[in-house]
Each structure stands twice: as structure tokens, then as C-alpha cells.
Amino acid sequence: MSGETEAVNAKMEDLKVGETSQASEQNNAAEDGDKEDVVDPWTVATSSSKGIDYDKLIVRFGSTKIDDALLERFEKITGHKPHHFLRRGIFFSQRDLHLILTRYEAKKPFFLYTGSRGPSSTSMHVGHLIPFIFTKWLQDVFDVPLVIQLTDDEKFLWKDLKAEEANKLAYENAKDIIALGFDVNKTFIFSDMNYIASCPEFYRNMLKVQKCVTYNQVKGIFGFGDSDCIGKISFPAVQASPSFSNSFPAIFGTKKDIPCLIPCAIDQDPYFRMTRDVAPRLGYPKPALIHSTFFPALQGAQTKMSASDPNSSIFLTDTPKQIKTKINKYAFSGGGTSVEEHREKGGNCDVDIAYQYLTFFLEDDDRLAEFKEEYSSGRMLTGEIKKELITILQKMVAEIQERRKTVTSDLLKEFMTPRKLNCQS
Ligand code: TRP
């Protein structure tokens, strides 16, 4: 029995005693005197000021930690130094990444699959960028086809939003994504609402997944309840289907044996545990995964970023002035309460949001190490570390805004048209 099947069944056991899986996990944790983090596609919550305990999450989800040996193998096979997201443990967990590297080594084809439901506002925030920045890098390293799913259907089902609005937002988000620099010759971006209606092969795969998974199982995996609409209950099949190469006949023809690698935040793992469980039964390879940690809100790792709270993050539409004000005003500080105290005791990088954001956006390892040393020792002040971050984010956001202006409707249309992609493998 596969690990995934065991995980699914374990959750089903919980349901038999009439509890939701989450509630029972919390009860067990309460007995341990230590509250479990809640991580699923809709909720990320922790009571610890240090944020989510990712090592515990790996054990609970049954994935594998990315260790030095894997990074060494990655570098040896691809000839690329691992991205700073990998070096710093931001992408920290995986499933079957070794198999993908083995295929790359043997020059056998595979593809990349990622996605986004996008924000409720028309703009994405910098946290949304993390999986995309990483996926773009993987595309450059591997030179393989990439498919990006925009789940306007998911958004319609979960939010108070008209179908037409959700669809329109998908196109706005696509422009932000394109502005990160994806190669149009290697990338297909699709809105579920549009693509599913035009591609019988995709819909057929959805049906196959739907036939394989029972209501009890999705309840166990996702915690759906009796009053959730049936659209939500069948949605996991939509997110599963792009994992299968024959869902994209324009790219892969009728080939059904090309596996994919999915970069995503770890909260998306439940979808792909389910996918990996059904894949062999449908005669398809299991998708491989590479998981990231969560991007913290300005207010601290304990709080959740929310697209509806403009002060909880930096948005791609923010002006340089807004970026400066938000970071100075809202970024949670691990520094001392007074300059004297800070000089004496130093800052706490583990909780300091300016430092945390620098680990995401400052590529230079030496400078980052220097800031850590200077800030922890109290020689560098909170205002000074914030200033470094402000400069980096202002530059990054301005560059994306500039590139977004060059995304014409023709270019958008090309990215979103099913077509043959042009890659080495
Ligand atoms: N459900 C994801 C979200 O809410 C969107 C998504 C669809 C996705 N397919 C994916 C994310 C594949 C990562 C990988 O944003």
C-alpha cells in the first residue's frame, strides 16, 4: 500500500468516529500539551511565534525533507548551483524529486506544472510570486514545457464572486505571471473555465479522477462538510488533472506517460496526495512535488497574509512610497524596544520580518550573512535592515510593473492558446 493510500485511510478512520480530521488532530495535540499547526489549502494557522513547524509537517504529510545530498545531486546533474530558495530551505520538502533528476539525466521528457487561484483584488502580492519565481528558474534550468493552471473555477466556488469576475481576474493574474519573465515558447497558461470547455481530454481525466475518489475520501483529505456545495467536493479532480500529460494534447499529443514536477506551497499537498494515490490506478505516472514554506505576513509569521488587507503584504501595484511606508510601519520587528536595548541585546532574526523577507529576496549569501551578524549583534538597527529591504522590493516591484506594461493582449493570447511548445526535451 502506498504512503498516500495510508494517509487517506488514516483520515478516513478519523471520520468513522464522527470527527473531522482536523479536529481530531487538534485533540491529540492538546493532550500532548502542544497545539498542532493547521495546514490545508484554505487554512494556515499556528500558535507559535516562530511560525509553522515544518519538520513536523513533513512527518505528518509523509513527504521527504530536501537534504544536502539531494542538493548536491541536483547541482551535479543540472550543472546549476541550487537556487537560494533551495539553499535557504524555502523549498524544503519533496516527493520523488530524485526520479525527476534521474529522468533529466537520462534525457527523458517531463514537464513542470504549477498554478494559482490569484488574489481577490486585481493584483497579486509578493508572497504569490514565490512559487512562480522558483518555477521560472526551474524552467530555465531544465528547459522543459510548463503549464500554469489559473483556477478561476476554484475562486468562484470559494469566494463571493461572479463567474465572469473570477474569469476576468484570471486574465489579470496571467499578466502579472507573464511579467515575471516566462518564455512564451515554453509556457502554456490556462483558465480552468475556458480550457476545460475546449478540451475533451482534460475533462475526461477529471471524470476518471472523480470516479476513483469517494466522498468519504475527499472529506477525509480536505475536511469538506455536509453543507459544502458539490462544486467544492469535485474540485480536487480539476487540480489533479493537469498532472497528466494527455490533458494537454496540443503539447504532448496522446502521450500519457510523461510525468510532471509540481512546485507549490506545502498547503497544496493534499490535492497531490490524492492525485498520487489515483494516478497508478489510471495508468498514469505520479506527479513529483517540491514544496515551499509560507511567505509570512508583514505583521509576523503568526498572522496570515490576506489579499483583502492591503497592509498585510506588499502588492505588485504598490508605489515605491507605499512600499516604504508599509515596511516601516507594519513589518514586525525582532529588534529591541529602544536603541539602547537593541545595541545591548541585538535583534532576533527568527521573528524579524525585514530579515525574513531578505532571505526570500536578497540573493547574495554573503550580504545576507553579514546582515544577520550585524543585526543580531545590535550593531545594525531595525530602521537600517528595513531600509535594505525597502530598496530591494522597490526595485523588484518596479521592474515587474514595467514588464507588465509590455504584456500586450496579443502576447497574453499567445500564452493562453493551446499549442506545441518548443523545448530541448
Ligand atoms: N489551488 C491553488 C490556489 O489556490 C491553485 C493551483 C492550481 C495550484 N493548481 C496548482 C497551485 C498547482 C500550485 C500547483 O492558489
Automatic annotation (TrEMBL):
<keyword id="KW-0067">ATP-binding</keyword>
<feature type="region of interest" description="Disordered">
    <location>
        <begin position="1"/>
        <end position="40"/>
    </location>
</feature>
<dbReference type="GO" id="GO:0005524">
    <property type="term" value="F:ATP binding"/>
</dbReference>
<dbReference type="Pfam" id="PF00579">
    <property type="entry name" value="tRNA-synt_1b"/>
</dbReference>
<dbReference type="GO" id="GO:0004830">
    <property type="term" value="F:tryptophan-tRNA ligase activity"/>
</dbReference>
<keyword id="KW-0648">Protein biosynthesis</keyword>
<feature type="compositionally biased region" description="Polar residues">
    <location>
        <begin position="19"/>
        <end position="29"/>
    </location>
</feature>
<dbReference type="GO" id="GO:0006436">
    <property type="term" value="P:tryptophanyl-tRNA aminoacylation"/>
</dbReference>
<keyword id="KW-0436">Ligase</keyword>
<dbReference type="InterPro" id="IPR002305">
    <property type="entry name" value="aa-tRNA-synth_Ic"/>
</dbReference>
<keyword id="KW-0963">Cytoplasm</keyword>
<dbReference type="GO" id="GO:0005737">
    <property type="term" value="C:cytoplasm"/>
</dbReference>
<keyword id="KW-0547">Nucleotide-binding</keyword>
<dbReference type="InterPro" id="IPR002306">
    <property type="entry name" value="Trp-tRNA-ligase"/>
</dbReference>
<dbReference type="InterPro" id="IPR014729">
    <property type="entry name" value="Rossmann-like_a/b/a_fold"/>
</dbReference>
<keyword id="KW-0030">Aminoacyl-tRNA synthetase</keyword>
<comment type="similarity">
    <text>Belongs to the class-I aminoacyl-tRNA synthetase family.</text>
</comment>
<protein>
    <recommendedName>
        <fullName>Tryptophan--tRNA ligase, cytoplasmic</fullName>
        <ecNumber>6.1.1.2</ecNumber>
    </recommendedName>
</protein>
